[in-house]
Design goal:
This protein is mainly α. It is built from 39 helices and 11 strands. It has 4 domains: about 5-25 and about 350-410, no CATH class; about 25-30 and about 60-95 and about 100-345, no CATH class; about 435-605, no CATH class; about 670-865. Helix 13 links the parallel strand 5 (about 260-265) and strand 6. The strands form 3 sheets. It has a 5-stranded parallel beta sheet with strand order 4-5-6-3-7, sandwiched between helices. A 4-stranded antiparallel beta sheet has the order 1-2-8-9.
Length: about 850
């Protein structure tokens, strides 16, 4: 059912424009209500149910909570209408059959703007029950006594008329109350003139009840009635009178039986965490009316199951309120294994957003907002209905100027979202909220530190709010609703305690320092924490122009393992030209290194100011030597670079000598492994790679361990292809979750060598060449061609091998893998061209030639013996 949207209606002069308060889906919430009501009806109809049992746990409350503007009040109104009758139920909602009586929905808006106090709440409930057409003697007597004490000389009927309550049985209630007085006076044989004097009637009734007279046996079953009639008739006593209503409802004859469903909306306006006076009175109503189902809608979860509220509320703890456990406490299950009774109302789906916008404004039965614009608004809303509502008003505002609204018109934030979000927060909670808006995610310690506070209480209160979402599997468990976070950070905040630019700057500095402290002091820092701190810290430093500080050391740690997780989401990636801050430059450098695992290497070359290795061996050696001589943080890597350039040039004794002084920081075992297999000694190479992998495991360097294992699999494949299968599987396992394209290709190379001499080699090599071309990893082409040469040598295919050697000659230079041509000749037992310059082998050319040729011979023998 859709009502009139009066705001939109009065925003246009177009008489043909139809405005509707569209209601979208919420089918899941209706299913929850239907299930809870069905269970409630079964429970109160059970033989052992007793409304006078004041000790039994209560399961007669259902809570829907969510951020401001999520549609809680709309849901409450639709629930009221749907429970009132089939004709009012939205078409997408099911039609359950309620067992055991008529359902009577009673909706009460607790918003401050509605002016609802506790007295009006009790009267509203009693007025709704007046529709039964019969008095409720026990309650009516108590209420009449209360009224005459609290409102002397003011007729109840006149009060109801002035307060806007008369429309709901406003005349029937005073008449029913008067009838009760007369009936009780007659039963007590009081003079007829006394029938209207409530004090005389109640006094006599109390004596009669105490004396167990037969004349009042109809009321004698209400064992607490005499006590309530004797109590001081103040607001506190009034809060216990609902027990009398529950008792009266329980004794209705089957033909008159009714089951109230009381919907309390805008519950957050009943008070705050310090002032719970109205909440305490309302809780009494819920507890004392166990045969009534209460559906509460508000911004926050009910805390009634929190043991810490003892003294502030009358009934607290999980034993009293099964199903209302607060965050962090395992949710109890209902009898049929359904979850507890606190339900977070989620955002609209994209489809629901589009449907909502299509039906809100129509002209001649067609949506006024076109489909493309609806899609833009829906995406911008992040599913928040309040944003959709504000966008509709903006659409009408722009249309009123005579211009057709465009998608760019809705690339804005609405300050009203801030006001709605902050309205019921304390000043400290607001301060924490703005602070954590700077962070993608956070925990209690990070939120407290970013806010500059010494105590966690405000952050603890904040995370219970529905706009703070939780991901137990994240590095930090909490994050703000995306739209609310964006709006708080970017909208023109007009609230009284809005932050100045300097306030935001100081908060960013605190947040960056807090991230650095977590990374530096964590008892188990790990790669995950490092990446999380870098991502958030670099974004803060970039957005606010902060000094790098600890980010520099973190960047060194990031690069040391060569894993290359992405550090910035696409929206935050800094353009390659002219970074604005040092953080931008660092982000660009680190992302360029990381992206090379996923894009053509030519793009990486364009991003970096210096290209290492390929084609610039002389310059690289000079730069490496300079850095090594400085003996700074990069010296071990520079010494490894010198060994690398010596190996590329074929100066193998220099490589061996350098490896003795590299140590772990210089990856000495990997350098030795790279050296030995070139000499035709893959067994020694595999042993070195194994030692390197073990060292990497000891230093918790997953990337280095995976790299060493990939190379170990390759070298073992040269001399023992059967054993290589397990090593290749291990390499794939170690690479899982890592972005190391070159290392992955080394595993593919191991697979090639394992299958050399077989029919499967051709299919693999074609796919691998295509992958190398798309990735721009041209430096790996010679290594793949060498694997091809091994395959062709095993097959004794001289023609194909000659073509491969020609390609190798084209791909290599004097300073870059020239010895690959030599090794290809060694494999086939062919003489070297006379004009070639010779690399310096560790134990001479002939010994190296013999070893390579023997590897080929062994493979032929294996294939012949095991075809």
């Amino acid at each position: 059912m859709a009502g009139r949207d009066l705001r939109a209606l009065f925003s246009t002069n177009d008489p043909h424009l139809a405005t509707a308060e569209a209601f979208t889906n919420r089918e899941a919430q209706w299913d929850v209500v239907a299930a809870a009501l069905t269970e409630h009806l079964q429970r109160i109809a059970a033989p052992g149910f007793d409304v006078t049992d004041f000790e039994a746990p209560r399961t007669n409350v259902l809570v829907f909570h969510g951020v401001g503007g999520i549609g809680k009040s709309t849901l409450s109104r639709k629930l009221e209408a749907a429970l009132a009758g089939v004709e009012h139920r939205p078409s997408q909602w099911g039609a359950p059959q309620w067992p055991g009586g008529r359902i009577l929905p009673i909706r009460i808006d607790l918003a401050r703007s509605a002016g609802t106090d506790f007295e009006r709440i009790v009267l509203t409930i009693r007025l709704a029950l007046a529709e039964l057409g019969r008095p409720l003697p026990a309650f009516d007597l108590a209420l009449r006594r209360y009224w005459e004490h609290q409102h002397p000389g003011e007729p109840l009927e006149e009060y109801l008329r002035r307060g806007g309550l008369a429309a709901r049985a406003g005349k029937a209630l005073p008449q029913q109350m008067q009838s009760v007085l007369a009936d009780v006076a007659q039963a007590l044989l009081l003079p007829g003139t006394v029938g209207s004097v409530v004090g005389e009637v109640t006094g006599s009734l109390v004596r009669a009840l105490r004396e167990h007279r037969q004349s009042v046996r109809a009321l004698a079953g209400c064992t607490r009635l005499a006590d309530l009639l004797q109590a001081e008739p103040d607001i506190d006593a009034l809060s216990y009178y609902p027990h009398l209503l529950a008792w009266e409802l329980a004794r209705l004859p089957p033909a008159k039986r009714v089951v109230p469903v009381i919907l309390l909306d805008t519950f957050e306006d009943t008070g705050d965490r310090t002032h719970r006076d109205l909440e305490r009175l309302l809780q009494r109503v819920v507890w004392l009316m166990p045969n009534v189902l209460f559906v509460i809608t508000g911004r926050s979860r009910l805390q009634w199951a929190d043991e810490g509220l003892q003294g502030q509320l009358d009934w607290t703890g999980r034993s009293a309120w099964p199903g209302l456990a607060s965050r962090g406490i395992p949710q109890p299950r209902l009898a049929d294994d359904r979850p507890g009774r606190q339900v977070l109302i989620g955002d609209f789906s994209p489809e629901d957003c589009a449907d909502y916008l299509a039906r809100r404004l129509t002209r001649s039965g067609q949506p006024l907002i076109d489909e493309d614009l609806r899609a833009v608004i829906a995406a911008r809303s992040h599913g928040l209905p309040l944003y959709l509502d504000l966008a509709v008003l903006r659409f009408l505002e722009i249309r009123r100027t005579g211009r057709r609204p465009r998608p760019a018109d809705f690339d804005v934030d609405f300050p009203a979202l801030i006001a709605r979000t902050l309205s019921d927060l304390t000043p400290e909670e607001r301060h924490v909220l703005r602070s954590v808006a700077l962070l993608d995610s956070f925990d209690l310690a990070l939120a407290t530190r970013a806010a500059g506070m010494t105590h966690e209480a405000p952050a603890l209160r904040l995370i219970e709010r529905p706009f703070v979402q939780e991901d137990q599997f994240g590095q930090w468990p909490f994050h703000l609703h995306a739209l609310i976070r964006s709006t708080i950070r970017t909208a023109d905040d007009q609230t009284d305690d809005r932050w100045s630019p300097r306030d935001w700057q100081q908060a960013a500095e605190r947040a960056l320092a807090a991230l650095g402290e977590q990374w530096a002091t964590s008892p188990a820092p790990g790669r995950r924490l490092l990446i999380g701190c870098l991502r958030q810290g670099l974004a803060l430093a970039s957005d606010f122009g902060l000094e790098l500080g600890w980010l520099t050391d973190a960047a060194w740690s990031y690069t040391s393992d060569s894993v290359w997780e992405p550090l910035a989401p696409p929206a935050r990636q800094v353009p390659a030209t002219e970074p604005n801050t040092s953080a931008d430059a660092l982000v660009e450098l680190l992302n360029a290194l990381g992206r090379r695992q996923h894009e053509h290497r030519a793009h990486t070359v364009n991003r970096l100011t210096t290209v290492l290795d390929t084609g610039r061996a002389a310059e690289s050696r000079h730069d490496y030597q300079y850095v090594a001589d400085q003996d700074g943080r990069l010296a071990p890597a520079a010494r490894r670079g010198l060994a690398h350039t010596a190996r590329l040039a074929g100066d193998f004794p220099t490589v061996l000598a350098a490896a003795q002084n590299l140590g772990w920081d210089g990856r000495h075992q990997r350098v030795l492994g790279d050296l030995y297999w070139l000499q035709g000694q893959p067994e020694r190479s595999a042993a070195a790679y194994l030692a390197g992998r073990d060292e990497a495991d000891q230093h918790a360097k997953a990337g280095e361990a995976a790299h060493c294992q990939a190379l170990r699999a390759f070298t073992i494949a040269l001399y023992d292809p059967d054993r290589a299968a397990a090593e290749i599987d291990l390499a794939h396992h170690l690479l899982a979750g890592l972005s190391l394209r070159a290392t992955t290709i080394n595993v593919r190379r191991a697979e090639l060598i394992r299958d050399a001499g077989t029919s499967s080699f051709g299919t693999q090599i074609a796919a691998l060449h295509s992958e190398l071309d798309s990735a721009g990893l041209t430096s790996l082409n010679p290594a793949i061609e060498l694997a091809t040469a091994f395959h062709q040598a095993v097959l004794d295919d001289h023609s194909a091998l000659t073509e491969t050697i020609t390609r190798l000659q084209e791909q290599t230079t004097h300073d870059n893998h020239a010895y690959f041509v030599d090794i290809a000749h060694f494999m086939a037992g062919q003489p070297l061209p006379a004009s070639r310059s010779r690399p310096v082998w560790l134990d001479g050319e002939q010994a190296t030639r013999d070893r390579w040729h023997q590897l080929v011979t062994d493979r032929r023998t294996r294939l012949r013996d095991h075809p």
